[in-house]
Write a structure and sequence with these properties.
Length: 139
């Protein structure tokens, strides 16, 4: 899917700064923040992968204070070089054009409850990205 979007609902003003709710662009995410001990193994209905690219034209004369908040790399699996679950995001910037890429994958249907924390970390990484707010300030 490819689309262009303009929406004032993604911006808030905080004094001389603007707060851009970039994370909301990936839509609501599942959260696994519960404190209760896991009772059963994880069972996914199907394998899936989401690849996203967000391109943002920053307003002239503004820069982003917290670009590093866009960088995430959370993974689970026996081989760190080839994880079966992961959430990765990163950015590049050329002038006022900010490009954010993220990939989220669940490539295994079953996951043992003894290793649930690693799985939970991946799911919550996507939920945490959903909450990223960029701080735009005058250069």
């Amino acid at each position: 899917m490819d689309s262009d979007l303009e929406s004032a609902s993604l911006l808030d003003k905080a004094g001389p700064r603007y707060l851009f709710k970039i994370g909301t662009l990936i839509g609501p995410q599942t959260e696994l923040y519960q404190q209760d001990a896991r009772q059963f193994d994880v069972e996914n209905d199907f394998n899936r992968q989401y690849s996203r690219q967000l391109v943002v034209e920053l307003p002239a004369g503004y820069s982003v204070r917290n670009l590093q908040d866009l960088n995430m790399d959370v993974k689970a699996g026996a081989d760190p070089a080839a994880p079966v679950y992961y959430f990765r995001s990163a950015y590049t910037q050329q002038g006022q054009k900010l490009t954010v890429t993220s990939t989220e994958a669940y490539q295994q249907l079953y996951w043992p409850k003894k290793d649930f924390e690693a799985y939970r970390a991946v799911v919550n990484a996507a939920a945490n990205f959903n909450k990223v707010v960029l701080v735009l300030e005058k250069k």
